[in-house]
Amino acid sequence: MSKSGKAHSLIKLKKGEFNVPPFFVCDITWSEESILSKIESNLPNSKYFAVRSSADNEDSKDTSFAGYFYTAIGVKKQDVFAEVLKVQKSYGETKGSVIIQEFIDSDVAGVMFTKVGENMVVINATTGLCQSVVSGKECDEYLFKKNGSLVNKTIPIEKSTLLFKDGKIISEKSKKESLNEPKIEQLIKLGAEIHSFFDSPQDIEWCFKNDTLHVLQSRPITRDFKVGKEEYFDSANIAESYSGIVLPLTCSFAKMVYEQVYKDLLRMSGVSRKKIEQHSNCLLYTSPSPRD
């Protein structure tokens, strides 16, 4: 059986005595009976499961394929085999195994990059399950130096979160900051330990349940990226939402309306009012020609 990629990483983390939820690895040769028997012997106290991909080319030092293959969380025991088949189907011609792991109904979860740019640590976090973070939804972001000193944090006014209630994943809005100082200290310490353990920068998926920190997976960071005081510009064709003839009076009205729209969008995305006003001069408008 192939135990490369994610499975190999989890096996190493478990041997390194990191707090990884109980799991085992199976492949296409395993029958439903074999999988259920293994669950009974290896995960007897688990009520729900995560069925995770571990393709041969996944989570390597050169390629990530994060989110490319199928993964299921909050799976009941009787549905595990069906989810295993879905993971295997998502591989196509790629070879790989499947991880069956105890599902953690987390209170707080996220991902952490142990080295970004010039020795920065980045933590993305949310209340509830990690799924909303890994799928790119709005979350809390913390930027630290290696020594643990906070450089910057961005907390959205409101964010969409995923919670596990009564055996189902539901979506809720949250205005609560996900992490406090003790949890941040635990994460920074964990990140340094796993970075040292693999001797390379890591992208770590983690979660807290009842103040206990769990490592869900860790993969090498396949490319570096910078964080800091960079400015990004976006252009939009307002004719798509403000159609018709634009006269001098309506042009000034449109300018006023869209300036407020963009400011409200930034504010609701968690950007401070102070920062929005500092960059107000970046709002540029190109007036349509008389023909338009």
Explain the overall architecture.
With 292 residues, the chain is α+β, with helices and mostly antiparallel strands. The chain folds into 3 domains: 98 residues; 113 residues, 2-Layer Sandwich (D-amino Acid Aminotransferase, Chain A, domain 1), CATH 3.30.470; 45 residues, no CATH class. Helix content is 28%, strand content 28%. The protein is built from 7 helices and 12 strands. The longest helix is centred in the C-terminal third of the chain and has 21 residues. The protein is globular and about 75 Å long. The termini are far apart.
Sheet of most strands: 6 strands, antiparallel
Helix/strand-derived category reads alpha+beta
CA-CA gap between termini: 64 Å
C-alpha Rg (nearest Å): 23 Å
Average residue-wise pLDDT:
83
CATH architectural category of the largest domain: 2-Layer Sandwich
Order of helices and strands: HEHEEHEEEHEEEEHEEHH
Q: Number of helix segments? A: 7
- Could you state the oligomeric state of the chains shown? single chain
CATH superfamily of the largest domain: ATP-grasp fold, B domain
Number of domains: 3
The name of the CATH topology of the largest domain is: D-amino Acid Aminotransferase, Chain A, domain 1
Cα shape: globular
Topology:
Layout: H1 5-15, E1 23-26, H2 32-42, E2 48-55, E3 72-76, H3 80-90, E4 96-102, E5 108-116, E6 120-127, H4 131-134, E7 140-145, E8 150-154, E9 159-165, E10 168-174, H5 181-198, E11 202-209, E12 212-220, H6 248-268, H7 273-278
Antiparallel strand pairs: 1-4, 2-3, 2-4, 5-6, 5-11, 6-7, 7-8, 9-10, 11-12
